[in-house]
Amino acid sequence: MSAAAIRTELAELADPVRAAGMARYFQVRPGGYGEGDRFLGIAVPPQRAIARRHAAATSLADVDELLGSPWHEERLTALFVLVRRFERGDDDERARIVELYLARRDRVDNWDLVDASAPYVLGPWLLDRDDSVLDELAGSDSLWDRRLAVMATFAGIRAGRPEATLRIADRLLTDPEDLVQKAVGWMLREVGNRDPARAEEFLVPRYRRMPRTMLRYAIERFPAERRRDYLAGRVRPSA
């Protein structure tokens, strides 16, 4: 009954006016990155609260059902349930969650869905395991797979292990999609927040090849003069 219960609670919160605004924001128009998605018009905090209330009683089959929904909020709430179950699960439970997550990642098809799940499910799972799946995702034709690949590495950054971030960022260095460029730049910025020297070691030999959006995100927290040097192309490798 959990999938039905979650659907009922979400439907009670539906707001058509808010839904129209969200549809514009997430570009559901023809040719937009969210083309065809549908919104109930529900803010994120109530969705998290619903996920907390129902997580323990929600089976992975229920989650799978919700991920198949055309409604964005049902998919996002399902992902919040997965995150909560993952945080509290043993290794067997976590393995099943990751298997479902990867199998149904075609339904993790907008930037908020990726960002709310990849750093908290796939990323932690791969910290002490073979993470070559990230390279496979980074090579995908799907921009959401590619964003998922780099966002999953946030878990390693938080653990003081940015190697996967730098590897995947290198693979995605010239990605044509704005939403991938922003994610890569964001993760490089997070590396720099913790280890500025490590971030610059990556950036200095590569920044001229990076899309401007990616570079601006990556250097956002640098001192103003250093940012200007990067943007003007004045930064050079040390002799």
Structure, explained:
This protein starts with a helix and ends in an 8-residue tail after the last helix. The chain has two domains: 1-106, Alpha Horseshoe (Leucine-rich Repeat Variant); 118-239, Leucine-rich Repeat Variant. The longest helix is centred in the middle third of the chain and has 17 residues, at 72-88. α1 (2-12) runs antiparallel to α3. The chain has 16 helices and no strands. The mean pLDDT is 97. It is mostly helical and 239 residues long.
Annotation keywords:
mainly alpha; Leucine-rich Repeat Variant; 2 domains; 16 helices
Short précis:
The chain has 239 residues and is mainly α. The chain has 16 helices and no strands.
Taking pLDDT < 50 over at least 5 consecutive residues as the criterion, the unreliable ranges are: none
State the domain count: 2
CATH C-level label of the largest domain: Mainly Alpha
Gross geometry: globular
Reported for the largest beta sheet, the result is: none
Which class of secondary structure composition applies to the elements? mainly alpha
Order of helices and strands: HHHHHHHHHHHHHHHH
Alpha carbon gap, first and last residue: 65 Å
Beta content: under 5%
Helix content: 55-70%
Number of strands: 0
Q: Give the CATH topology of the largest domain.
A: Leucine-rich Repeat Variant
The CATH architecture designation of the largest domain is: Alpha Horseshoe
> What's the helix count?
16
Q: For the residues shown, what is the average pLDDT? A: 97
Rg of Cα set:
19 Å
